[in-house]
């Protein structure tokens, strides 16, 4: 039986039916690997401002190229398979260790950034694989408890602490002794904060997408938490960007693509940037500073500071191999920064809260 002409079901077997056109598969050129073929397609189809994977500046340690994947596809896979990436699921975005299921975590934030950045990169004919790799790796260095944890380590650790530098340290040193990523991915990860300047337009795509993602999803989460209401949002911003979460993201993504197509820059029009900044300032006033979302922040800071000083004086308790040769303070900083919210709370209890005496009958 035909269902709307698209799918059919007969004799216990479902099929998608006839498609109107055929996919034209270009035959692999003789003697070429799949990767080389993909590199050729990039050369034929990408913008003159895109980074071609065949022209990468390379890795810290030379490696034999993969026969199937380009260097940037390979970097993306290494990041996805890393332990640091899996830990993002238990790290705070804005709401500390939320028990409700629908609040963003650092992992879902990362996935939203990646999705937005890929859409922009594809719209601009930039290298989508490079963009995706940068996006998936950009926040790997975040501490437990979000910016509260970062503030503490920045204050107590000699030389300070910045999550973007730590993200680079994760991929260069801490994860399995270093993932040996390409120069372009490392540059995009290090330079993703707004104050920095990534060297590639793919890095710029991640930078604008990070801002589009967090401003919008933090509004969504704050509304979900009952801290703000939709009608509290600044009217001037809503008039430009739209009244719903989906409309606002769509306006911003379309704005970046239309404003940046075949230009050597990726950015918003002035109107959209102003509207986005209005929303961001609103979040600082109503959500990021002093709201109930931040009520537990002082306790979280206390945990991070206590753990850091404990591991500085007890480096033998640090369960990490890749930074063994470093100073105890560096090792303590890496260890605490790598913890999830949950693990930090568990370790804090183990180290600082006395265990009750359990008497067992002989
Ligand atoms: Mg981010």
TrEMBL record:
Keywords: Hydrolase. Residues 1-10 have a biased composition (Polar residues). Residues 106-215 form the HD domain. The keyword DNA-binding does not apply. It comes from the Bacteria. This is Deoxyguanosinetriphosphate triphosphohydrolase-like protein. InterPro entries: dGTPase, Diverse_Catalytic_Enzymes, dNTPase_2, HD/PDEase_dom, HD_domain, PHydrolase_assoc_dom. GO terms for molecular function: triphosphoric monoester hydrolase activity. Pfam families: HD, HD_assoc. Belongs to the dGTPase family. Type 2 subfamily. Residues 1-22 are annotated as: Disordered. Gene3D superfamilies: Hypothetical protein af1432.
